[in-house]
């Protein structure tokens, strides 16, 4: 057995699954679940900063406004923890984007691995053939539509929690 190199990922060996369908779905959903968990941890940290650190509300509000590209946001006299608040808010944005993106059921994205387990055989054959053009289909169908339907409500939920807690 060759030695494991630092930074080298171990591939998933599906033949080791005890229950192929269930285990493939669980492995596939692990990535989006870790994205959602990371966004949730960042949200919790921002709520703690908001309540426990003087100037936390200003730092978080400014970070949200800058991340939303709102023009004319003043960035002078911000608390020292502003970079941390900005970083944590971008952790939320990036991980929610990855969460939604990975669940899109177009091959080769993770969402397609889940969907294919629920398709009848003939539909699966067509789905696999169409999958060769998955990314092209995604761009043509409109990634912005998909993100506006799923990402925006999810981000609004996180923002609402951050405002109300």
| Main β-sheet description | none
- Intertermini distance: 52 Å
Percent helix range: 55-70%
Arithmetic mean pLDDT: 88
Secondary-structure-based class equals: mainly alpha
Shape: elongated
For the secondary structure, the number of strands is 0
Low-confidence stretches: none
- Tell me the fraction of residues in β-strands, as a range: under 5%
Q: Helix count, per DSSP?
A: 7
Radius of gyration: 20 Å
Order of helices and strands: HHHHHHH
Summarize the SSE layout with pairings.
Blueprint: H1 20-52, H2 56-67, H3 82-103, H4 110-116, H5 121-130, H6 134-141, H7 143-164
Give a verbal description of the structure.
This protein has 165 residues and is mainly α. 69% of the residues lie in helices and 0% in strands. The longest helix has 33 residues. The protein is elongated, with a radius of gyration of 20 Å. 16% of the residues are buried. The model has no long low-confidence stretch (mean pLDDT 88).
């Amino acid at each position: 057995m060759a030695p494991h190199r630092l930074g080298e990922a171990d591939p998933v060996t599906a033949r080791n699954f005890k229950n192929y369908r269930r285990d493939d779905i669980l492995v596939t959903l692990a990535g989006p679940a870790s994205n959602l968990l990371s966004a949730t941890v960042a949200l919790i940290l921002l709520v703690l900063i908001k309540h426990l650190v003087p100037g936390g509300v200003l730092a978080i509000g400014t970070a949200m406004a800058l991340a939303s590209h709102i023009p004319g946001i003043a960035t002078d006299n911000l608390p020292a923890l502003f970079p941390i608040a900005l970083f944590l808010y971008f952790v939320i944005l990036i991980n929610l984007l990855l969460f939604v993106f990975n669940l899109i059921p177009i091959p080769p994205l993770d969402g397609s691995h889940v969907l294919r387990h629920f398709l009848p055989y003939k539909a699966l054959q067509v789905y696999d053939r169409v999958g060769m053009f998955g990314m092209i289909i995604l761009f043509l169908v409109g990634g912005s539509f998909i993100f506006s339907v799923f990402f925006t409500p999810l981000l609004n939920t996180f923002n609402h929690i951050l405002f109300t807690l």
